[in-house]
Each structure stands twice: as C-alpha cells, then as structure tokens.
Amino acid sequence: MTSKSIDFWYYTSSTYTYLSAMRIGDIAEQAGLVVRWRPFHLNTLLQENGVKPFPPGRAKTTYMWRDLERRAQMHGIGFPKEPPPYPCDPDILNFRVALVAHEEGWAKEHALASYDWWFRRHRPPGLDDNRVPFLVSLGKDPDRTIARAHSPDIDAQVRASADEARTLGLFGSPHFVVDGEVFWGDDRLEDAVSWAKLGRVERTN
Q: pLDDT tens digit string along 163-182?
C-alpha cells in the first residue's frame, strides 16, 4: 500500500529538525506528497525514558553542532557561523504557539519561521523578548495568540501530543510516519518519501 501523505512529527526545540524543516517541503512536493506538520512535546517522552538532550559545553553537543553544519552544507542549507542559542525554549513558550498554529492551520509557517529566527537570526521565539516581534512577523495578533497558547485547551494538547506520539512509538525529533511506518532522523526523510510512494525503501542515488 502506498500513501499520498507524510506525517512530520517534530519538536520546535530540536536542532536536527532544522534540517528536515528546511528540506521536507520541496522533497515532498517533487514526490507529489502532502506533508502534515505535527508538533509534539518531545520532552515528556525524553523524561520518561531518562534521556537528557545535548547539554551545553559537552563533547556530544560540540559534535552535534559540527554534524549539523556538515549536513547543512551537504544539503545546501544555510547554517550560522556561530551556533545559535541553546536551549532555545526552556519554558515551552514557542512550542505552545506551535500547537496553536497547528489547530489554526499555520503550523508549517510557524515552524519555518521559528527555525529562521532561532538559527539564522539568533533570536529564539521561545524567549520573552522575541515572542511579540516573532508573532507580528507572521501577521498574527500577539495578545490573542499568546493568550490562546496559555489556555487550558493548549495545556491539554501538550499532554495529548505526547500521548499520541508515545502510542505511535516515537522517541525523538524529527520523526516521519507513513501509514503507521515510523522513520526517525533527518537522514531517514528520503526513506519515508520512498515508502509513501512505493511501499518500500528504495534509494535513487
């Protein structure tokens, strides 16, 4: 069975998701596939599994930034000369806005703008000083959007997004899900596209 869509599960504070967010639109369009952007609260799953993300100042984190730079260069994606601020959304303020964007139909625009502000401008939209100008740049009413982001409904969606991801067997970001088949990591994006088109993984190069 083949599919005409890919569910792109992502967390807005995930560094490696930057690569996928920049790539998936063009790749899916060329393949004739629809991308469904699905923000989810990855930190809930990481905490459940006792996993800590890349800690600042550690060798693993240094490697992460260099690896991202190499892979961005390989894909022709812009990458900053200096690593962007990290962590970027300690109070999940921007993630809450991602959930608002998802329910209102502008999740893709929000995600792309989030990575532009975080990686290229070094102004993470999850930090207080950046929230209002970030939302204005998207043509959104900051007061209304921020109020919605802190509503009980979004509180419930934070939990629900993690619950659904757990049910699917997700554990990191980015993930791509095609008809229940799970692919993890930016380097599996092409595999997910192949599965959606052919029902199997087949590389073309």
A: 999 999 999 999 999 999 99
